[in-house]
Amino acid sequence: MSESNCVSLEYDFLKALHFHELKNGLRVIQKIWLPRNDSFFIIELSSKKEIETVFELAVNMRLMHENMHERKYAVREGKRLVVESDLGKLIVSVLKGKAFFQRKPEYRVHFPGSEQQCFFVPGVFRLSGKRIVLLLSA
Questions:
Q1: What is the pTM of this model?
Q2: CB distance 109 to 85 below 8 Å
Q3: Integer CA distances (angstroms), 15 to 10, 42, 56, 77, 93, in order
Q4: Which of 122, 129, 51, 119 shows the shortest CA–CA distance to 94?
Q5: Which of 12, 63, 68, 132 could make an SS bond with 97 (beta carbons 3.0 to 4.6 A apart)?
Q6: What is the pLDDT of residues 9-47, one digit of tens each?
């Protein structure tokens, strides 16, 4: 799913709905909930047919003045994935759907705007189901 196959969008300041039409004719709704006073958000994918997708998590825990840093991350797997650094942790829980996490830790660089920043990718989730729900929390 990408900007190129998003055919419409609804947003009400707490929830965003992206409606995608893929090349194979599959229609997928992506819902993202972001509660105002909590440190988590939920991503939900739903379709009338089975969805198979890959979710790549990019983590960049940093102080406001940092762009490039040498911060190390630790990854713990179990019922949920935990990515930790000296600044905190990010927890990913799969609430609905089938999931397989393929560990492939990698540090990368990108340029959001004009400044170079580094980020960490712990691996990828291979997800499937008619309804897939992920919870990301601090």
A1: 0.87
A2: no
A3: 8, 9, 21, 29, 19
A4: 129
A5: 132
A6: 999 888 999 999 998 889 999 999 988 888 899 999 999
